[in-house]
Amino acid sequence: MGVLLDELSAGMYGLGEDSDVFNIKGIVAPSNDLPASASLSAIVSALQKTYCRNISYEFEHIEIFEHFLQKKLPNVKRYGLEGSEAIAVLLDQIIYEGAQQGIVDVVAGLSHRGRMSLLAALFGYPKDELLRKLRGGSEFPDGSPWTGDMVVDLAKPATLRYDDLDATVNVDVMWNACHLESGTPVGMGKSRIKDINIARAKKDKSHTIGDHVLAVSVHGDSSFAGQGVVAESLGMSGLAHFTNGGTVHVVNNNQIGYTTPASHTRTTRYASDIAKFADIPIIHVNGEHPEELARAARLAVAYRQKFRKDIVIDVWTFRKRGHNEMDEPTFTQPAMYSVISKHVSAPAKFEEKLISSGHLTKDAANSVKLEWLASLNEAFVSSETCDAKEPTRAPRWKLLGSSASYPVEKTTGVSIDTLYEVGVKSVAHGDSVRVHPRIERFHIKPRLKRLQDGHAVDWATAEALAFGTLLKEGYNVRLSGQDVGRGTFSQRHAMFVCQDTEKTYVPLNHMDADQSTQSSGQQGKLEVVNSNLCEEAVVGFEYGVAVEDPFTLTIWEAQFGDFYNNSQTIVDGYIASGETKWGQQNGLVLLLPHGFDGGGPDHSSCRIERHLMLSNDPVDDHPVALPNIYVAHPSTPAQFFHLMRRQVKRNFRKPLIVAGPKTMLRLASATSLLSEMGPGTRFKPVLDDPTINDPRAVKRVMLVSGKLYYDLAKLKSEHPLGQHAAIVRVEEL
Questions:
Q1: Could you tell me if 699 and 723 are in contact, meaning their C-beta atoms sit under 8 angstroms apart?
Q2: Do β-strands 504-505 and 496-497 pair in parallel, antiparallel, or remain unpaired?
Q3: Model-level pTM?
Q4: What is the largest CA-CA distance in the chain?
């Protein structure tokens, strides 16, 4: 393809003998294909792969695709990539560079701008299906129960093949809600757990987070500077339980936000300046120069691989048309669009450069255009009659039933011996860990005494039994939120902090430490995550974990129930509606402490009514009641135990919202015997009144949930007409 420039000839520099071995350390970065000492031919081959890839065709495809859509579907809002075509080249180069470094999976979060073009030209989304969607059809097969989403939120897994590397990269293009930047933390959580699971499958003991999976997130300039979830996500990117080995952030900086100029979208000089507070490096690059984009991609991936930290590439581009194709941009930016209207596109300029330098012929360029245009015309015709294909389910999700299948409710009880063993080990610690004397007195000893005497156990013990028994069965548990290790109300103590060293110790992760073999297989891990002080990004992160791994019980606990308010975007756009829109199940649990217990009006209610409003539980004669979310307000430790175990024992996954206890954590009457968690037991959506001997004597039935039951039960026991009233607890609303 064209002539080799003299400056790129090895002979020009006196290099010609291939038998010599050169030490390239400090000159060229070694890779899988290039050891630290290599022959001349090996060095030249590796450098050609890195620096001489043909990046012109991605440019050509996008320009043709955008013009084709503008001609065929001029009244469809697609939020095109014209003026920002460089983003496609950059993303391809980032993934290519990752493949050279051993990356096998990429989690890609795309922005609205240019999504159609990227899906078609880079990620291989079937063009006829894409055009079917743009023409008003669904991205799902006819008859699918899923509603679908806007064209700018489409997603489908892709596989990119790089023949020169003999490498294949799986690209998980994420669904994302329309709220700008809300997908950023979702991609972080998804990529972290995906990487960990690959390492577990390979039994890679030398694994470092980010070895196998790379997260790439595309942003708009105004949203990157303006949306608070960006700062939250960047701020937690380097934290121990949230790092994914580094995300490469690409800011498509077209210097305008809808109709608002950059001078009114931020107070900083650059749209990317928000990253500076987290010590994240920023590369500024001109989107008109594809060679510089390729260099930026190489630098960004090299930095990420070396330091396992986030990095930002700020790509300066422009927007050819309005915010969408129906907008008139000159209403608000006449001067800017006067310049843009006369501007030659980057693909056209780059094509001319390649032709004039002899690297590309005019006939070859036209051949590519005609071939791509022909495929688009064929797809346009096919889109009238084609049916979309269901997205491929990830291997772990294939082990479960579809979310439309009838729920198989298994018993969730466990043998009494196992419960006792887990209970004892949940507070065990070695001599090297000196726990606080008050924890020893008020937490460890009381738990052991209750177990040894066969007495009923409290809420925190039942929770530990649920987690511990799941771990023994090979499930993982991730408990995340502010202060969850100790618990807001100092009730949990899932981890002990040594009073001498401040090192943490999680007893449930050491249950089998004294056993030479594990009859039940490898024990799962309890990851206790004391999060940073934010909600939206953390809940988004945990949602990403939950949609990636259905066999990890993923829990986010609010410090107080109303703290979830700050994550309402994630609750609305992902947790409650993700399955309805995209067919994407998730089993995330939200634990929201609830109740007026002297904490003031703002730290009391978890807003149960909001969650019920979000539920689509059918009220007609639908034969299968499969709501989008489950909302529960359990009143006993045993009920909570079964809820947690049921969440991963079902043949499907649904989000679970739990109005959690505050007073009941230490209420003497709110306890449960081990037998209530024993073999053959399960969660009961409704609890009958245990004090009623003769139902015929009942004159009044009261329905109640949560802690109010205990207040009413006490009043009833003291009332002369108490025998005529029944208190029925609705545990699952």
A1: no
A2: antiparallel
A3: 0.91
A4: 107
Cβ-based neighbours of 588, under 8 Å, separated by 6 or more: 542, 543, 545, 546, 554, 555, 556, 575, 655, 656
Q: List beta partners, residue 711.
A: none
Tokens, residue 426: 């949940």
* CA–CA separation, 157 and 138 (whole Å): 17
The DSSP annotation for 646-679 comes to HHHHSSS---EEEEE-SGGGS-TTS-B-GGGGST
**Token pair in block for residue 652:** 């499907």
Query: Do 234 and 537 form a contact (C-beta atoms < 8 A)?
Result: no
Q: Return the beta strands (E) in 30-144 as ranges.
A: 37-39, 105-109
**Closest Cα to residue 548, out of 196, 95, 300?**
196
**403 vs 146: CA distance, rounded Å:** 11
Q: What is the 3-state secondary structure (H, E, C) of 457-484?
A: ECHHHHHHHHHHHHHHCCCEEEEEECCC
Give the 3-state secondary structure of residue 106. strand
What is the end-to-end Cα distance of the chain in Å, rounded?
67
Which residues are paired to 312 by β-bridges?
Answer: 249, 282
Residue 649, strand partner residues:
none
The length of the chain, given as a count of residues: 733
**CA of residue 657 relative to chain centroid, distance:** 18
Residue pair 230/292 in contact (Cβ under 8 Å)? The answer is no
Distance CA 192, CA 215 (A): 9
Of 225, 230, 217, residue with least CA distance to 187: 217
Q: Tokens standing for 477?
A: 């548990």
Rounded Cα distance between 291 and 108, Å, is 23
Cα–Cα distance for residue pair 631/616, rounded to 1 Å: 11
Strands (E), 145-236: 158-162, 167-173, 213-220
Blockwise average pLDDT, block size 10, the chain, 733 residues = 52 70 72 76 74 55 86 90 90 95 96 92 94 95 91 92 92 93 96 96 92 97 94 96 97 92 91 95 92 91 97 94 89 91 88 86 89 94 94 89 71 97 95 93 95 96 98 97 92 94 95 53 90 95 97 95 90 94 94 84 88 79 72 96 96 93 92 97 96 93 95 94 94 94
Pairing, β 311-316 against β 725-730: unpaired
Neighbouring CB atoms inside 10 A of 151's CB total: 19
Tell me whether strands 282-286 and 311-316 are parallel, antiparallel or unpaired: parallel
- Euclidean distance between CA atoms 181 and 188, whole angstroms: 12
Q: In a 3-state reduction of DSSP, which class is residue 150?
A: coil
- Closest CA relative to residue 36, chosen from 48, 26, 51: 26
